[in-house]
C-alpha cells in the first residue's frame, strides 16, 4: 500500500484556538459544581395547619415513649420472673422478658421517630454549603459556629413550640428510669433482714443435739449447749440463712459469778444465752473454758467473757456477743422473750 492509499487523518483540535477554526470546543471543567438545587418549600412551611399536625404527631410519639417507659417499670415490678406466655408466632416466652423488651424498644423507637419527623417536617431544610476549614478555627469562625447553632435552635422551633419541647424533655427524662430499674437486679435489698432473726417472744430453745425443748435442769453449771429457735428445721429451704443468724449457745454460770447487771437480768437462774456467731467475720464459736467463763472463736482467736456481758478481751472482734433475753414458760421450758437487741455477727451493716 502506497502512501497515497493511506487516508488522511482528520484534523483533531488539540488547542483551544482550533475551535475558532471550525473545530469542536472542549469544556474548561467537565466536573464543574452544578450548585445547589432550587429550594422547594414543604407543606408545613406554607401551611400552619399542616405544621400543627406535624407538631401534634411529634408530641404524640414523645408521649408514647413516656407511656412505654411507665409500662417498662410496671412490668418490671409486677410480672413474676417465672411466668411463661404464648406469643404468636414466637411461641412460649418469658412474660417479663417480652414485656421489658417491647416497652423499652417502643420507648426508644418513639423518641427516635419523633426526632426524625420533627427534623423532616418542622426544622429548617435549607441546604447550606460552607468551605472546609482548618481544625484550629480562628475566632471569627468560632463566633460563626455559635451563631449558626443559635440560628439552628431558633429555626428548629423548640422555643416557640412548647408542646414538642415539653414532651421531648419528658420522654428523655423518663427513659433513663428504665436503666435505673435494672439496678434492682444487682442483688436483693437488705431491708432489715440483717438486723432481725427468727427469734421472737415465746419461741422455745431447742437443743441442737436432741431436737427437744430445753428445761433449766438440762443445762448444768459449766456446760455449753447449742440451741436453735422452735420451728426452724433443717428441711426448710432457708435453714442455713436463718441459722447463720439465730444460732445460740447456752451456758450456766453461778449467778454470783455474773458481773454484768443486764446479763443477770436477762438470764434465768444463771443460764445465759448468747449468739454463737463471732462478731469478727461470723465464724461459729465452739470453745468454752468453764473456769474463766471465756469462749474462744477458733478462726481468729477472738475471746469473749460470758460472765461480763460477753465483752471482747482478746482478738480482732469489734464488739461483744449479742445476748438473748430468756425465761421459763408455764410448762417449764426455756423460751425467748424477744429477738436480739442488736445485729448478730460482723458489724459492717450497722456502721452504714
UniProtKB/TrEMBL annotation:
It is a multi-pass membrane protein. Residues 7-21 have a biased composition (Basic and acidic residues). InterPro entries: QcrA_N (IPR045603), Rieske_2Fe-2S (IPR017941), Rieske_2Fe-2S_sf (IPR036922), Rieske_Fe-S_prot (IPR014349). Residues 1-33 are annotated as: Disordered. Keywords: 2Fe-2S, Cell membrane, Disulfide bond, Electron transport, Iron, Iron-sulfur, Membrane, Metal-binding, Oxidoreductase, Respiratory chain, Transmembrane, Transmembrane helix, Transport. GO terms for molecular function: 2 iron, 2 sulfur cluster binding; metal ion binding; monooxygenase activity; oxidoreductase activity, acting on paired donors, with incorporation or reduction of molecular oxygen. It holds the Pfam family Rieske. The chain crosses the membrane at residues 58-78, 98-119, 163-183. It comes from the Bacteria. It is found in: Cell membrane. The keyword Membrane applies. One of its GO terms (cellular component) is plasma membrane. Belongs to the Rieske iron-sulfur protein family. The cytochrome bc1 complex is composed of a cytochrome b (QcrB), the Rieske iron-sulfur protein (QcrA) and a diheme cytochrome c (QcrC) subunit. Iron-sulfur subunit of the cytochrome bc1 complex, an essential component of the respiratory electron transport chain required for ATP synthesis. The bc1 complex catalyzes the oxidation of menaquinol and the reduction of cytochrome c in the respiratory chain. The bc1 complex operates through a Q-cycle mechanism that couples electron transfer to generation of the proton gradient that drives ATP synthesis. This is Cytochrome bc1 complex Rieske iron-sulfur subunit. It comes from Streptomyces lavendulae subsp. lavendulae. The gene is aioB.
Amino acid at each position: 500500500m502506497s502512501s497515497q492509499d493511506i487516508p488522511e487523518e482528520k484534523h483533531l483540535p488539540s488547542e483551544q484556538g482550533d475551535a475558532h477554526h471550525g473545530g469542536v470546543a472542549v469544556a474548561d471543567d467537565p466536573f464543574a459544581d452544578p450548585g445547589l438545587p432550587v429550594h422547594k418549600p414543604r407543606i408545613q412551611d406554607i401551611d400552619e395547619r399542616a405544621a400543627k399536625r406535624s407538631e401534634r404527631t411529634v408530641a404524640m410519639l414523645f408521649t408514647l415513649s413516656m407511656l412505654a417507659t411507665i409500662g417498662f417499670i410496671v412490668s418490671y415490678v409486677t410480672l413474676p420472673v417465672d411466668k411463661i406466655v404464648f406469643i404468636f408466632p414466637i411461641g412460649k416466652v418469658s412474660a417479663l422478658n417480652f414485656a421489658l423488651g417491647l416497652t423499652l424498644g417502643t420507648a426508644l423507637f418513639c423518641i427516635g421517630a419523633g426526632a426524625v419527623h420533627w427534623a423532616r417536617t418542622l426544622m429548617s431544610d435549607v441546604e447550606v454549603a460552607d468551605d472546609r476549614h482548618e481544625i484550629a478555627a480562628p475566632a471569627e469562625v468560632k463566633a460563626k459556629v455559635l451563631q449558626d447553632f443559635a440560628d439552628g435552635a431558633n429555626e428548629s422551633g423548640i422555643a416557640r413550640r412548647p408542646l414538642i419541647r415539653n414532651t421531648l424533655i419528658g420522654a428523655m427524662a423518663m427513659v433513663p428510669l428504665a436503666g435505673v430499674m435494672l439496678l434492682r437486679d444487682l442483688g436483693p435489698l437488705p431491708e432489715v433482714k440483717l438486723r432481725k432473726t427468727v427469734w421472737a417472744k415465746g419461741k422455745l430453745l431447742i437443743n441442737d443435739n436432741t431436737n427437744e425443748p430445753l428445761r433449766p435442769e438440762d443445762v448444768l453449771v459449766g456446760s455449753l449447749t447449742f440451741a436453735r429457735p422452735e420451728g426452724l428445721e433443717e428441711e426448710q429451704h432457708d435453714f442455713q440463712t436463718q441459722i447463720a443468724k439465730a444460732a445460740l449457745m447456752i451456758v450456766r454460770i453461778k449467778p454470783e459469778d455474773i458481773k454484768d447487771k443486764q446479763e443477770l437480768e436477762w438470764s434465768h437462774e444463771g443460764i445465759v444465752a448468747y449468739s454463737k456467731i463471732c462478731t469478727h467475720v461470723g465464724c461459729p464459736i465452739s470453745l468454752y473454758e468453764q473456769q474463766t467463763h471465756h469462749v474462744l472463736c477458733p478462726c481468729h482467736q477472738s475471746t469473749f467473757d460470758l460472765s461480763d456481758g460477753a465483752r471482747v478481751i482478746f482478738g480482732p472482734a469489734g464488739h461483744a456477743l449479742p445476748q438473748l433475753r430468756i425465761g421459763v414458760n408455764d410448762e417449764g421450758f426455756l423460751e425467748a422473750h424477744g429477738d436480739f437487741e442488736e445485729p448478730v455477727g460482723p458489724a459492717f451493716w450497722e456502721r452504714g
